[in-house]
Structures are given as C-alpha cells and as structure tokens.
Amino acid sequence: MCDATRSGRPSILTEKKVLGISDAMHQSLKKSIRKLSQQVGVSYGLAHTALKKCLRLHPYKITAVHELKPGDSAKRVAYCMWFLDFLDRAGEDILNITVFMDEAYFHLSGYINSQNSRVWCAHNLHVFHESLLHDEKIGVWVGMSCRRIVGPIFFLETLNFQRYCDNIVYPIIVQLKDEIDKAYFQQDGATAHTVHMSMALLDDVFADRIVSKTIWPPRSPVLSPPDFFLWVAMKNSVYSNNPHTIDELKMAITEYIRNVDRAILNTVYENTVRHVSKCLETGG
C-alpha cells in the first residue's frame, strides 16, 4: 500500500514557525493567543493550530486562592497536626459538636461574574447588569458542625467586640443549649473575635474548648467548612430565585439552611478531613 499524492495547498506552518511559537509561549504561559500571534507574526488560526495540534497544549482555568504570607505555611501545618491528633484522641464523633463559625455578606443585587455569565442570542443584545453605588446587603453568621447548622444570625452593622458578643456569641450559646458544656468553638483571628472582652466571654463558656487565634491559621478558608462549601452553595441557590428585598433574601437564606441535611454535612466534613490531610502532605 502506497500513500497517494495529496492535492491542495501545502501547510505554511513550518517546523521553524512551530518552534518560534513554542519559545514565545513558554516565555509567558498566561499569554493570549491573539497576543502570541502578533508577537510571532502568524495568523490567529495558525497560532491556535500550533498550540493545540502541534504542541499539544490546552488552556486551563486559574484558581484564585488566598495569598500566604511568610510563616503561614508553618501555622497551617501546626493546625493540621493538631486537628488530626484531636480526631485521634476524641474520635470523629467529636465533629458533631465542633462548631466552625464564619460570616459572609449577601448583596441584594447578587453577584455577576462577567467571565462566566453569557447570554446566547443571534445578535448582541448588549445586556447589562446594573448595580447600585451603595448596594443593600445583609451580614449572615452561622455555626456549622457535622450534625447541623446553627443559625443563621443576621446583622447589618460592622461587628466590633460588643456587637460580636451581644449579637453573635450569646445567640449561638442559646442555640447550642445542651451541647454547651462539651461543644468546641472555632473562630478566625478577626480583631472583634479575639480582643480581651470577647475571649473572656468565650473562656467562661467554652474554657479550653476554643479553636481560635493561637491554633487556627490565618488566611485559611480552604480548611473551614463554611468557607469552602456553605457560602458558595448558598449563594448559588439563594440568587437563583432573584430576591427583590432584604426580607426575601433572609427568607431564602433561612430556607436553604433548613434544607441542608445530615448526609450533605457528613460529606462536607469528610472533605474537611481530606483538606487537612492534603494540606499537611504539601507542607501547608
């Protein structure tokens, strides 16, 4: 069997041009194809063909994470070692009464990611998402354990230590009820949470069962169940119904939390343990 003579125009994408495209792309992997084609002096189509078919390169999304500062990795490792030892000593059932606390803001206008939001149509409708200069928003505070979600607690003003104690900590204590004598309380290192007055109140209630600034590593939302799961899932659900008032927004948030069942929470906390193990494996 012999290969027949081919007709048609020969490819102008020579080996030399492919090598030039490869060199130019590897100088900056975030470069757009349009800029690459201008830099190398070939058409957009040829640059795209060279990347995909000749060099076997593929575009991947960039994941946004919190910036770590010097010393953060060591603090993460210390927390992960403490957490796994905590589970070994107390058993995984202790996560049923270990409450991870966190807050988030929900804006009435919702959130539009212009990179991912699209309107499919035969012609450009020039769709805009209008947002107010001072958009209405509501603060939401929850406590999340492997068994249930405590809250939500809504707040409007910026939290100082007095509002934190009066509007957050006391209502959480009331909702914990029978668990209060054995529950563990996690919070991040925000100033309102860790000033002397706030910590004195928490010490009186939780004693040595506080996971706070001395243990919890800064800039570590990937280790906190409300951060890496709850807020993202809740916002996707709440804004799908397009609430028009703060009261409707509160009702949607409350309804979502009521519908989070035990199976979902079990999966989230299995992922929490995996996150901690992976963080420890990668040195923080």
**What series of H and E elements makes up the topology?**
HHHHEEEHEHHEHHH
CATH superfamily of the largest domain: Ribonuclease H-like superfamily/Ribonuclease H
CATH topology of the largest domain: Nucleotidyltransferase, domain 5
Gyration radius from CA atoms, angstroms = 26 Å
Q: What is this entry, summarized?
A:
This protein has about 280 residues and is an alpha/beta fold. Helices cover about 45% and strands about 10% of the residues. Strand 2 and strand 3 form a beta hairpin.
Q: What does this protein look like?
A:
The protein is of the alpha/beta class and 284 residues long. It has two domains: 15-54; 72-281, 2-Layer Sandwich (Nucleotidyltransferase, domain 5). The protein is built from ten helices and five strands; from the N terminus they run ααααβββαβααβααα. Strands 3-2-1-4-5 form a five-stranded mixed β-sheet, sandwiched between helices. α1 crosses α2 (33-40) and α2 crosses α3. The termini are far apart. The relative contact order is 0.13. Mean pLDDT is 83; it is low at 113-117.
Properties at a glance:
alpha/beta; Nucleotidyltransferase, domain 5; 2 domains; 10 helices
Question: How are the SSEs ordered, and which strands pair?
Answer:
Layout: H1 15-27, H2 33-40, H3 44-54, H4 72-90, E1 98-107, E2 137-144, E3 149-155, H5 161-176, E4 184-186, H6 191-194, H7 196-206, E5 210-211, H8 225-238, H9 246-258, H10 262-281
Parallel strand pairs: 1-4, 4-5
Antiparallel strand pairs: 1-2, 2-3
